[in-house]
Design a protein that fits this description.
The chain is α/β, with parallel strands linked by helices. Helices cover about 35% and strands about 15% of the residues. Bound molecules: guanine (GUN).
Length: about 270
């Protein structure tokens, strides 16, 4: 059987178009059946839900991903709840979010935080007993990141603090982090002086900022000011090239698992 991943892109957000094409390329490069369904920004919620229903019913499709953000007028929560949980390779459906929080492994974990955990494990960063501080409380990164780091297992067992725009003294928290994960969507907001010497710094940000020294007039950067942070941190991820490729790898892993579960459920029934 060939794992099949269907990615849905609604509208013409430039960053989303890049992410989606990277996902399609990666799925094809490892031998999956990858397709991208592009819909105009004028697509109605009812039309998108009808497409999701068609993909839910298609046996060649093991994973469905609807790229966020969606155009205004479409409620992302309604769309996410429409995706069959066993095809929700993004791990955004409430059933999968609940399983992740409980610590059950028969659902799907959201790709970006799962990629961060995988990086920590493979880099030999000890999470057990560590002070892990997360900056950002989004449903895609901050909240699931906290849920994963607190689980009683390898890659978990951390003492977790979640900071956000209303946190009283952000830097008092970031300065005591052994593991600092920044996913706030604010360019270069964390600098070397906000980091504990030797800390592991994971930069989940992806921002485009003006830069007159570049021919394009802009450059990509993370939520961490890399040069100042690199001098203080023990380990640090770059942007681009750090968390982004891990997100895609976890999406592919989830898609393979979705296909394997279908195959396993057929064993003995043929
Ligand atoms: N937009 C930003 N990150 C993601 C992601 O992981 N999945 C989807 N579907 N949309 C996103």
């Amino acid at each position: 059987m060939v794992p099949g991943l269907s990615v849905v892109l609604v509208g013409d957000d430039a960053a989303s178009a890049v992410y989606v094409s990277n996902k399609e390329k990666a799925s094809k490069a490892c031998g999956m059946r990858g397709e991208t369904i592009r819909l105009p920004a004028s697509t109605s919620q009812a039309e998108l839900l009808a497409l999701v229903e068609r993909l839910n019913a298609d046996n060649a499709v093991h994973g469905i991903l609807v790229q966020m953000p969606l155009p205004s007028g479409i409620d992302p929560d309604v769309v996410i709840r429409h995706i069959a949980p066993h095809k929700d390779v993004d791990g955004f459906h409430p059933v999968n979010v609940g399983k992740m929080l409980i610590g059950h492994t028969d659902g799907f974990m959201p790709c970006t935080p799962a990629g961060v955990i995988e990086m920590l494990l493979r880099s030999g960063v000890e999470t057990r007993g560590a002070e892990a501080v997360i900056v950002g409380r989004s449903n895609i990164v901050g909240k699931p990141m906290a849920a994963m780091l607190v689980q009683a297992r390898a890659g978990g067992d951390a003492t977790v603090t979640v900071c956000h725009s209303r946190s009283r003294d952000l830097h008092a928290h970031t300065k005591r982090a052994d593991i600092l994960i920044v996913a706030a969507g604010r360019a270069e907001m964390i600098r070397g002086e906000h980091i504990k010497p030797g800390a592991t710094v994971i930069d989940v940000g992806m921002n485009r900022v003006a830069d007159a020294s570049r021919a394009s007039g802009s450059r990509l950067c993370g939520d961490v000011h890399f040069e100042s942070a690199e001098a203080v941190a023990g380990k640090i991820t770059p942007v681009p090239g750090g968390v982004g490729p891990m997100t895609i790898a976890m999406l592919l892993r989830n898609t393979v698992r979705a296909a394997e579960r279908v195959a396993d459920s057929r064993v003995g029934t043929a």
